[in-house]
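Example 9 (inverse folding). The structure is encoded as follows.
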């Protein structure tokens, strides 16, 4: 059995460079979606990579349809919707890296220059005019285009030339001899060759058939040309009849090395998870397969063989579906050619009729399959468009994504270009990289001494056996759609069939853990390479990522879930990588604040950023196990981790092929859920040694010197002298001998701050000090010039990213546009905005670009409304200023209430004490920021206080902590600031006397504030009356509990504890008295330690836009319908499925009064009357959608529909929506769907009336729209054999439809 398993894996270890297929077809009009579906299906059946089309009849209005439906790149040149039009379509697997399009003659002649990994192709798509004079001029233009083509580039000219080149190519005399003469001359001039004729010398076959009055006309009008010296790259060229055009398909097969690598190994087709028949087949197969476990020597062997059987089952199932169809199509195509020749040679009417019959049969066969594809496509368009789905985000226009390695430098520096040499060089490099450098057992090392230990309670949890619930929880936490390992079985498969295979997976994994060895398939990883920055001919500039089998990742994820609950016990707070509750922002904040503090105090500080060479890949396994033992992990848990790395191998995937497997003796696998934490554990002994040894940087106010900031292998060391540098070099050498870790000093960076009058420390290996700044974890830090690089080209980057979506903009709903803006464009700034401040006006410029993209024309609603949450009448469009403010508030929250061991907190407090001029740190946030001077603070902290000023603050429970009670300010507008009521100069006097906290006051006056003379002397006041009033106010401001604490403090009964947590604060947005429907939904108060980033953001949106929002009502319909103040639109229900998002947009615009009715348009265009096109009353939005007399029959129908659900219908419900209640969600969704379709019917019929188009009867259109949408789902679920799901969604109370005997029946109401 082992031999069989090994054979299967060896079967995959080869490199196949496939041919690609280019075809040309005059499609004779493709406005019909079904015809386009037939074309797409045909292209898949014929495995076409490039398709040149003529007579597409495309225009700008349906260009997006082509782009949406074609799974690849579609390039169109339009003429009109009834004639002309050419296209060049690239398959998804054959998308060029870059391309250039020239529309030489719009809709007739298009040139595409496409760059692939190794070659440049030029495609010229030709649709010659039918009239002689136009064709002659056209062919002369074509000749000019060819003249501009480089003979070294691969040229493909394909299309409908509407004339022939030789007599043999027509069944009658060529009527266009002048055109023929020009084509021949063009061929000779440019040394071109007719590809099909080159393969079929003397043969007659035609690409165009026309029958009139029992006369058949045949001609080979469609041809593909290339340069003669490129003919040898063509393997074949064939003419294939198609059913949906009077022209035939010309298909050429071309072979070029390194142009189109085939898939290296099989991948599970995730669409099978939705196929009911396949699910049933698989369940039956697995039950039978489980019965043969005893015939195998081990569970691992049985499991490996089972995965091979799953692969064969999937292949066979897919082959059975397609093979019959493909065979039938090929038979009909051959018969068509035969009858075509027969009809021409005999002229017999029966033969002509047979020709038509065969073509009809081919059309029916292709049409049935295309109909199924169209059904799936339409359902997918409704279900997956404008939502955060993989399908939607994949629509972004991208260049070719294949990461081919064109050349590599050998060990000696010679440039290698052949496929074999490149693969061999890469394989040797990684085989050497993963070969252990350690020999024999390592002696006890100082690095393993004094490491923190895992608690005894945690060890018991880590050691327990795997459970089914644990595996299922791990599985649900894994993301679908990721590339599978060598077995090809994805996470999607396991999630879909967990109820079938779950217990067997558990048994195999537990047996493997007990035996110490995983199945062979789990032990082999596919190593794929991703490009990094730098010279890509250097193999070191490619990052290896392990594609691991899903069952391996499932085990790793389960162990990672266990480890993450205990790892913070042993990893120091200055290492944040893969440690729960820690963040990469902690690292950036620490380094940023060190730089700022050094500037403020003129400290001598050196920051050395270490570049670890292949850090993850060089971790020695024996060293890793020793480290785990040193941290106190149990033998049982360590053995579980060892199983993941026992006898493992990697197979390098490069340029589409696989290398031979090689042993992996070291490295943690990038791509494994456990690898991040394992690396943090592996590097911790080094960091611990550096913390103990280095002097580090001592900052006034910080108890512990700052020495290290680490995020995985991104390590910054803080040094204050040459001795630190010497110690670093020695420690790194020792650690390298122990673990094989290696620092690349050439790529490391060092930043020097301060004067260093006693001499600048000397760096190793020619590393030099920088004085300006450096980039750390994606953020430029340093002086103003360096930090400015964070925002270079920001506006241009936004415009470029949005430009890739312009093609789809007309098809996208508002929700889709917001997804693009928020998730793909604006989010690219979050990391930098969270760490450093942007330049003035930058966010405003970017916001303007985002707003213009959202509206794509007239701005109907103020942007301040768009920023509101969706359930408050907005669209959730990101407000960059508010998002930045929310980042600052999250920082303040983390400073005040976050984990106690955050590495930067002490430094942050020191900055606040020195920069705030009052000697306070966290207590500053209890004061009014607008009454404080922050000019000495670094820019980041100034921005924090500016944002903090947008909120009001009070204690949640002031008497919890004596320390924080004593630290409470008595100046600056804080709760205990009572000075301003007496004398404007009194606060200045308090600050001058250093009396700024309650502790300062109590130490002078006692717990009852009775020592008037002591305070008066400190302030230099003669008037005891003023002092008495001041003390009385402080006495009144303190609660009874607080006074008792102060008494105990003065009596020495209790002492303040600096370790006390910062007490709870209540915060709420400061709206400065602004009110209104759009502001009233903001929460009154929020507990600081409970506020989420989303709540901060939404509150900031209200504060920043309060003036604009105050003047607006939530909807103008409130006044029109005379609604009570508490009645509001059901915003939450507007965008619920099954409504299409464009219908939802209409409802949203209606509620905001943002519809171009005549009362509005007439103001802009005086030529437009303000009258209703139906009843000649003044057409407002209220009239158009509720008051027009034509709507009365519609409302009667809606009343009947609501009655079928036992609900009441009203105009208020029609406009505002039906209230969404989760317990009745199916009814709520259907009724809101009905309301949305009714509004769309009103809108469409009105538009048709204005444009004088048919279809103005709203009572006829409304049920048609309802039925059309229901049919989309019905046909899909019927195709999926899953009508039960359809019934659950649509057949609620059988009010609008029912399903009987698998047939759909609509209610009589419709």
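The amino acid assigned to each position is listed next.
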């Amino acid at each position: 059995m082992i031999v069989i398993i090994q054979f299967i894996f060896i079967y995959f270890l080869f490199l196949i460079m496939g041919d690609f297929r280019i075809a040309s077809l005059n499609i004779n009009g493709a406005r019909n979606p079904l015809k386009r579906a037939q074309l797409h299906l045909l292209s898949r059946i014929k495995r076409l990579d490039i398709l040149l089309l003529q007579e597409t009849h495309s225009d700008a209005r349906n260009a997006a349809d082509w782009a949406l439906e074609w799974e690849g790149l579609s390039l169109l040149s339009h003429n009109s919707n009834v004639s002309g039009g050419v296209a060049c379509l690239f398959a998804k697997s054959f998308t060029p890296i870059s391309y250039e399009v020239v529309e030489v003659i719009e809709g007739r002649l298009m040139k595409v220059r496409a760059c692939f990994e190794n070659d440049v192709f030029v495609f010229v798509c030709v649709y010659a005019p039918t009239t002689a004079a136009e064709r002659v001029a056209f062919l002369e233009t074509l000749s000019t285009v060819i003249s501009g083509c480089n003979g070294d580039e691969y040229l493909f000219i394909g299309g409908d030339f509407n004339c022939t080149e030789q007599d043999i190519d027509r069944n009658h005399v060529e009527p266009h001899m002048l055109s023929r003469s020009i084509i021949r001359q063009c061929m000779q001039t440019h040394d071109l060759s007719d590809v099909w004729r080159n393969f079929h010398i003397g043969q007659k076959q035609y690409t165009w058939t026309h029958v009139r009055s029992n006369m058949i006309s045949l001609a080979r009008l469609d041809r593909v040309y290339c340069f003669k010296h490129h003919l040898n790259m063509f393997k074949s060229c064939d003419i294939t009849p198609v059913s949906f055009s009077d022209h035939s398909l010309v298909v050429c097969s071309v072979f070029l090395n390194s142009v189109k690598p085939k898939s290296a190994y099989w991948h599970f087709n995730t669409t099978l998870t939705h196929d009911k028949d396949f699910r049933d087949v698989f369940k039956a197969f697995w039950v039978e397969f489980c019965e043969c476990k005893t015939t195998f020597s081990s569970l691992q062997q049985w499991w490996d063989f089972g995965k091979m059987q799953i692969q064969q089952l999937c292949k066979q199932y897919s082959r059975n579906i397609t093979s019959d169809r493909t065979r039938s199509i090929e038979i009909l195509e051959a018969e068509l050619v035969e009858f075509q020749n027969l009809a021409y040679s005999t002229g017999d009417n029966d033969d002509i009729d047979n020709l038509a019959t065969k073509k009809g049969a081919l059309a029916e066969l292709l049409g049935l399959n295309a109909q199924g594809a169209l059904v799936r496509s339409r359902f997918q368009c409704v279900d997956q468009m404008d939502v955060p789905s993989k399908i939607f985000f994949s629509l972004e226009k991208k260049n070719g994504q294949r990461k081919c390695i064109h050349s590599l430098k050998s060990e000696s520096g010679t440039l290698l270009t052949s496929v074999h040499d490149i693969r061999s060089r890469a394989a040797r490099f990684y085989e050497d990289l993963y070969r252990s450098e350690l020999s024999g057992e390592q002696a006890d090392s100082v690095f393993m001494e004094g490491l923190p230990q895992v608690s005894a309670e945690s060890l018991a949890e880590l050691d327990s056996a795997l459970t089914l619930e644990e595996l299922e929880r791990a599985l649900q936490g894994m993301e679908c759609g990721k590339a599978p390992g060598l077995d090809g079985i994805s996470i999607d498969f396991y999630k879909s069939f967990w109820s079938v295979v779950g217990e067997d997976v558990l048994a195999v994994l537990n047996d493997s853990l007990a035996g110490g060895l995983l199945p062979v398939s789990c032990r082999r990883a596919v190593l794929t390479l991703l490009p990094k920055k730098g010279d890509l001919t250097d193999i070191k500039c490619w990052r290896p990522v392990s594609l691991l089998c899903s069952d391996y990742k499932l085990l790793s994820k389960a162990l990672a879930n266990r480890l993450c609950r205990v790892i913070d016990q042993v990893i120091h707070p200055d290492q944040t990588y893969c440690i729960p509750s820690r963040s990469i922002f902690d690292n950036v904040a620490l380094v940023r604040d060190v730089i700022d503090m050094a500037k403020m105090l003129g400290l001598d500080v050196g920051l050395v950023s270490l570049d670890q060479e292949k850090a993850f890949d060089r971790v020695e396994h024996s060293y890793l196990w020793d480290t785990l033992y040193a941290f106190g992990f149990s033998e049982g848990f360590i053995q579980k981790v060892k199983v993941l790395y026992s006898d493992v191998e990697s197979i390098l995937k490069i340029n589409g092929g696989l290398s031979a497997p090689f042993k992996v003796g070291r490295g943690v696998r990038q791509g494994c859920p456990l690898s991040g934490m394992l690396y943090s554990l592996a590097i911790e002994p080094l960091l611990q040694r550096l913390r103990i040894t280095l002097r580090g940087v001592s900052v006034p106010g910080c108890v512990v010197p700052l020495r290290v900031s680490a995020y995985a292998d991104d390590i910054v060391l803080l040094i204050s002298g040459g001795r630190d540098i010497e110690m670093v070099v020695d420690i790194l050498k020792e650690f390298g001998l122990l673990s094989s870790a290696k620092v690349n000093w050439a790529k490391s960076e060092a930043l020097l701050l301060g004067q260093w009058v006693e001499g600048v420390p000397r760096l190793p290996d020619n590393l030099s000090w920088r004085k300006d700044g450096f980039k750390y974890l994606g953020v430029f830090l340093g002086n103003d010039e360096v930090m400015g690089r964070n925002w270079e080209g920001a506006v241009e980057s936004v415009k470029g990213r949005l430009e890739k979506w312009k093609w789809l903009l007309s098809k996208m709903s508002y929700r889709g546009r917001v997804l693009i803006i928020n998730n793909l464009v604006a989010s690219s700034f979050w990391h930098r905005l969270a760490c450093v401040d942007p330049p003035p006006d930058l966010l405003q410029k970017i916001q303007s670009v985002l707003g213009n993209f959202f509206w794509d024309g007239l701005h109907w609603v103020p942007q301040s409304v768009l920023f509101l949450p969706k359930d408050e009448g907005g669209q959730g469009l990101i407000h960059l200023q508010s998002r930045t403010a929310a980042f600052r508030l999250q920082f303040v929250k983390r400073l005040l209430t976050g984990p106690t061991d955050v590495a930067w907190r002490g430094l942050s407090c020191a900055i606040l004490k020195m920069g705030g001029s009052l000697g306070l740190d966290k207590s500053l946030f209890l004061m009014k920021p607008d009454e404080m001077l922050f000019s000495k603070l670094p820019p980041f902290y100034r921005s924090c206080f500016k944002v903090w000023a947008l909120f009001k603050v009070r204690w949640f429970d002031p008497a919890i902590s004596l320390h924080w009670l004593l630290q409470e300010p008595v100046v600056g507008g804080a709760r205990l600031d009572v000075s301003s009521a007496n004398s404007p100069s009194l606060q200045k006097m308090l600050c001058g006397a250093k009396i700024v906290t309650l502790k300062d006051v109590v130490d002078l006056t006692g717990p009852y504030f009775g020592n008037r003379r002591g305070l008066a002397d400190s302030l230099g006041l003669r008037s005891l009356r003023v002092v008495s009033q001041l003390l009385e106010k402080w006495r009144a401001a303190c609660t009874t509990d607080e006074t008792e604490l102060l008494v105990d403090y003065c009596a020495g009964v209790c002492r303040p504890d600096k370790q006390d947590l910062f007490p709870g604060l209540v915060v709420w947005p400061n709206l400065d008295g602004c009110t209104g429907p759009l502001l009233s939904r903001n929460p009154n108060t929020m507990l600081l330690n409970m506020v989420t980033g989303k709540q901060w953001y939404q509150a900031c949106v209200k504060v920043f836009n309060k003036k604009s929002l105050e003047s607006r009502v939530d909807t103008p319909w409130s006044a029109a319908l005379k609604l009570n103040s508490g009645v509001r639109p059901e915003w939450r229900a507007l965008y619920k499925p099954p409504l299409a998002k464009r219908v939802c947009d209409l409802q949203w615009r209606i509620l905001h009064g943002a519809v171009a009715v005549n009362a509005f348009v007439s103001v802009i265009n005086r030529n437009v009357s303000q009258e209703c096109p139906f009843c000649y009353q003044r057409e407002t939005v209220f009239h158009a959608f509720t008051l027009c007399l034509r709507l009365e029959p519609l409302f009667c129908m809606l009343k009947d529909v609501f009655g079928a659900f036992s609900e009441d219908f009203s105009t208020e419900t029609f406009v505002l929506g039906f209230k969404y209640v989760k317990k009745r969600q199916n009814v709520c969704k259907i009724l809101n769907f009905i309301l949305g379709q009714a509004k769309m019917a009103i809108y469409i019929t009105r538009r048709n009336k204005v444009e004088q188009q048919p279809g103005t009867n709203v009572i006829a259109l409304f049920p048609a729209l309802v039925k059309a949408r229901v049919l989309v789902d019905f046909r899909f679920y019927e195709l999926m054999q899953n009508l039960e799901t359809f019934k659950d969604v649509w057949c609620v109370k059988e009010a609008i439809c029912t399903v009987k005997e698998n047939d759909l029946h609509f209610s009589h109401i419709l």
